[in-house]
Amino acid sequence: MRSTLQSHSPPSQRGLTARRACQFSVVFLAAVVLICGTSHANEKISFRNDVMAALSKAGCNLGTCHGNARGKGGFQISLRGQDPARDYIVLTRDWLTRRTNPSQPDQSLLLLKPTMQVAHEGGRRFDVGSAEYQILRDWIASGTPDDPADAKKMVDLIVSPREEFLSATSEGNSKGWQVQLSATAVYSDGSKRDVTPRAVYEISNPIAEISPGGSVRGQQVGETTVLVRYLHQQVPVRLAFLRGGQGFAWNAPAPANAIDTRVYAKLQRLQINPSPLSDDATFIRRLYQDLLGIPPTADVARKFVADSSPSKRSHLVDELLERPEFADWWALKWADLLRIEEKTLDRKGVENFHGWLRDAFATNKPLDQIVREIISARGSTYEVPPANFYRALRDPFERSEAAGQLFLGARLQCAKCHNHPFDRWTQDDYYSWGSVFARVDYKILENNRRDTNDKHEFDGEQIVFLGAKGDAKDPRTDATRPAQFLGAKDQIGAKVDPLNELAKWLTSPQNDRFVKLLANRTWQQVMGRGIVDPVDDFRATNPPANPELLELLCQELRSPGNSADSHVAFDLRHLLRLILNSNTYQTASAPNATNREDEANFSHALVRRHTAEQLLDATSLVLDVPLKFSGYPTGPRATQLPATRLVRRRESPSTTADQFLAVFGKPPRLQSCDCERSDETTLTQTFQLVSGSLVNQMLAEKDNRIEALMRSHPETPALVTELFWTALTRAPTTDELTQTCQYIEAAKSRRIAVEDVVWGLLNSHEFLLRR
Amino acid sequence: MNANPISRRRALSVGGLGMLGVTMPKLLQAGDVIGTRPAHAKSVIFLYQFGGPSHLDTFDPKPDAAAGVRSHFGVIDTAAPGIRICDQLPKMAAVMNEVSLVRTVYHTMKNHNSASYYALTGHAPPLDDIRLRDTLDLFPAYGSVVDTLAPVSDGMPSFVAFPHIIRDGEVTPGQHASFLGKAHDPLLITSDPNDASFSLPELSLPSGLTTQRLQDRRSIQQLVNSQARMLDHSVAARGLDAYYEKSLTMLNSSRVREAFNLSAEPQSVRDRYGRTTYGQSCLLARRLVESGVKFVNVYFANNIGGRTTNGGWDTHGFDNTRMYPILRDYQLPITDQTLPTLILDLKERGLLDETLIVWMGEFGRTPKINDNISRDHWPQCYTVLLAGGGAKKGFVYGTSDKQAAYPDKDPVLLDDLAATVFALLGIDPHTEVRDKLNRPLPVSAGKIVTPLMS
Predict the structure, then answer these.
(1) What topology does CATH give the domain B31-200+260-452?
(2) pTM of the predicted model, to two decimals?
(3) Which of B26, B248, B440 sits opposite A690 (nearest CB)?
(4) Which residues, other chains included, contact A308 with Cβ-Cβ below 8 Å and sequence gap of 6+?
(5) pLDDT tens digits for B208-231?
(6) ipTM for the complex shown
(7) What is the chain B residue with the closest CA to A693?
C-alpha cells in the first residue's frame, strides 16, 4: 500500500507523464498568487530565509533543473538549496549574465525567465506579481544583499499533523480524505513564522493531490508519506486514506504472540482484516523454502499434514532451525552482501569466508559478534576468514559505503557528491566516515592472476593490516578529514585502532540503527519485505510501516531477559522463532476484500518468485538429478555454492546450471546491496524453462525420479498423486487427478506423457512462486 | 485449453513486453517523465566497430598532413560534393550523399572496455579502467533504455544484439539493461548468421520436443494454475503467465521465426552483404528492423583484434604486425562491401528514412603513425557515421584540426551523440530513469546536436 518515498522526486512530479520535470509545479503555482507576498512587506527580505525558499518553492534548484551537477542553460545552483553561500555568489557576482539587475529589477533574468517573458526551457515557474516574484524582486531592488552574519537563522521546522488516518465519509467516497498541513519555521532568535504556503510538499506514493498551500486531498485507499521541506529542514507526514463507510468489521483471530498484537493494531486502524492462516501443506512448503531454501519431500509433507498435534507448526519451526541446510541458506544470504566472489577473493578466500559464515550460522554465533569479527578483522585472508571483507573492498569509500549500507541501513552514495537530499548525511559526514577505513591496507604476498591488466583480480594470499597513514581524501579540500563514526558526535582519537573501536561502537546494543537494521533485515529475510523498505534505506523520510513492530523486534534482539526461553542477545534463531510462530508469518497469501491493496502491513503473505538457487535446487530434488556447476564436483546444491565465479575460465566453461542461475538473477556480488539480486520475471527465463536444454534434459534423464516413481507406482492415479506431493507438496484436486490420468493413459508413450505432466507441475505458479 | 488464443495474443501485444504486469511498476518508476518529441527514426541499427577504427584511414583523411601523419592510403571524391574519404572505400564513396559524418567526436577514455562502455551507453565510466567491472551501478545499453521507455508494442522484441558478446579480457560493460532490470536485456544471439544452420536458439526445440508437446505441457500447467487461482490476486503470477504465453507465441509464430530466417533472402542479396559473419549480421539487422525491432546492436567482432585479419580494429602493429596490410585486406573491404549495401538496401525498401544507422567505435587512432607503422588509441578526436533515420544527408558536422588530432570546430562529446540518437528516436534525453538506489538519472546528460537533424 505504501511505497517508499522516491528519493529526489520533484514536488508533485510523480503521476504526471509526458511533461518535463521542470514544468511541473506550474500547474499548482498558478494558483498561489500572493498568498504571502505582502504579509511581510515591511520586513527586509533575507537572502537565506526568503530568497532561497522562493527558489526551492519554484523548483529552480531541483536535480532535473538548475540543481543538476551540470546546471541547465549555463545556470547552476546548489541541489535543493544546500549551499546558500555559493548560490549567493552565482546569483549576484556573475554580472555578464544579467541574472540580477538592481537598477532595473524587472529586467533581471531571474525574473524574466521563470515568468516566461524570456524563453525558458523549464517553462513558467511563477507569474509576475506572485509571492515568489515579489520576494525575488524586492531582494534585487534592494541591491541583492546577503544576510548579515548575525541575521536570524531557521533552526527548526514544525509540521502538523505528523500522522493522520483519514476515513472516507462513505464507501467509495473520497470526502473526508482531506487535511490541511501546516508548517512553522522557528528561528534562532526564538521567533516563529507560518511558512505553510512557502514550504515544498512532495509525496511518496502518488495517491493524493497536494496544493502548493499544503492542502492534501486523497484520491484512493492507501498510505503515503508527504515530505514537507523548507530551507534545509524536512519533515515527513504519514497519511492513510481509509475505506470508511459502515462495511468494516474487525474479524482477526486472537494474536499468537506480541508480533500479531503490533501488526493487528495497525491493521485495525487501517480498517484492514488479515487473511486467515495458510493450510498445513502451504505452511510446510513455505517454511522449508524460507528457512532451508528447499521444498519438503513428499513423505515429510504428508506426515506433517496428517499429524493432529496442535503444536506441530512450532515443532517444525524448531526442527528446521537446527537443520544443516539452514546454515547453508543463511550463509548464502550474507555471502551475497559481503561480496564473496572469486575474482578478488580467489578460490581459497571464498571457501574460507563462506565456510566461516556457514559455521557461524550453524553454531548460532550472535549476529553482533559476526559483525564485530568482520569489522575488526585483520591478518591473512587465508587464516582469518572475515578479513576477506576488506580484501573485497579495495578503496576506503567502498568500505565505508558498504559498512553504512550493510550495518547501519544508510545509503550514503548520494552524499559523495552533494549533501544527501533526503537524509541527514552531508558531504562532511561522508568523508569523515570514509576516513575511519582509510588506513586499511594490504600486503600482497603473492598474486598469480591470469590477467595482468586486471587490477581487480587477485589470486594468492594477502595480509590485511592497518597502515600508519590513510589516504581517503575529500576532493573538495584534497585532504583527509578526521575520522568520525557515522552520525556520532566525536572524532576518533588518533591513537586508537579505528576498526576495533568501530566494531565496539557499531555493534553496541545502544546503537539503535544497527539493532534496527538487523531486526529489519531478519524480518525481511522471511517475510519478503522490510518494515522499513528497502531493507537498508533507513531515513526520517522513509519511515517504518509499523514502528512498534520494529521496536519489538529490536527489544528481542537486545535483551535476552524478557522471554521465556533463555538466549543471548542478538540471537538470530530466537528472533526467527518469534516471527515464524506468529499468525502474521503464517497467514495465507490470498487477500480478502479489505487487504487486497495492502503490501506494506503484512495483512497477507506476499507472493514472490523463488530465487534462482531455490528453483534450481527444487527442480533437482524433485527429479532426483544432481547438478553440475563449473569448477565443482557434481553434487552440491545451488544454495551450497560458496561463490559466484567471475574468473574467466577457458578450461571450465559455464554449465547449463550456471547459466540457469545467471538467467534467474543470482547476483555477481559486486555490490553491497540486496537489490543486486533480481527476482524479476523475464522472457529469457520462460524460454529457459520452455525450450531450454537444462530442464528438458533433467526431465528426460534416464534414471531420474520419474523413472523410479513409474516403477514403484504402476497405477496411474497413485503415480499422479505421488508426483503432486513431490513437486507441489499437496495432493491433486479431483479435476487435476482426472484430467492428468486421462492425459497419461491416452498417450502413446507413458513416459513422455508423465514427463509432460511433471513439466506442467514444475512450471506451475505454486512451484515457481512463494506463497 | 487456451480458449481464445488470438484475443490473448492481441491483449499481450497492446503494451508489448514492457507493459506486462511484472514490469509495470518498474516502468512507471523508470518513466517519471517520459518526454516525447517528434520521432524521425523508428529503428536504430548500431554497428559497433570494436577495437577502434582509425579515423585518418577511413572517414577523416588528411592528405595534406605531413608524412608520418597522413594515411598511406589515398583519398577519393564521393557522391557528396566536398566530402572526401579513404580510397579503400570506393563503394562507400558512392553513397556518401546519404550519410552524415561527425568528425569531432571526443572523450578521454583510453582503454577499450571503459571507452566502449561510454560509446555503448553515452555515459562516462567512473574511471578509465582497462578491466572496468560490469556492475549494476553502470548505465544500460541504448537499446535497453529504448525498451524501457518506448518498447515495441506488437510482439517483436524491442532490442536484439548479435552476433557476439564483446570482451577485452573481461566482458565489456554496456551491453545489457543493468539497473533497468533483466526484463530489458537484449535478445542476445551468439550463433553465427553466416552459418548455414543459423537459427535462433530460443526458437529451436530440444530433440524430442514438439510444438504439440509444448501445447500439452502448457495445458497441464494451466490446469494446475487454475486450481491454485493465484492469477486472481498475484501480480507475479500474472506476469509469469504472460511471459509463458509470449514465449509459446514466439515459438509458434511464423512472424518471429521468419524475421530470423536468413535463408529466405535471395542468394544474390546474401552475396551483396558479403558472406561474412558481419555481412550476414547486417542483413539480419535489416530483416529485424523490417519486422519491427526497434534497436539492433551488431558487433563487428567479439574482440579488439588488430594483429590478424580476424577480430576488431585494434591495429597497433604489435608483435611485428602492420596496420595497413590488415586494414587493406580485412576491415576496409568488409566495411566497403557491407555498409553501403545496408544503406542502399534500406533505401530501396523505403526504410532508410525511418532507420538510423550508427557506425562507430570506442575511439579513433593516433594521428602520428607509430614505430610499427601503425596507430594507437586516440579518443581526443574521431569520426562517427550516421545514416538515415532523420540524420542529414551528405553532411559533415565538426571540423578536426590539420592532423585530425583535436576538434577544431563543433566538438561533440559522446554524451551529445547519445542525446542526438535518443532525440532522433523521439525520446527526450532528459527523461529520467532510476538506478538500484533509486537515484534519478537522465538517460543522457548531453546536448542534442540539432544541426545533424534533417
Answers:
(1) Alkaline Phosphatase, subunit A (3.40.720)
(2) 0.86
(3) B248
(4) none
(5) 899 899 999 999 999 999 998 888
(6) 0.86
(7) B206
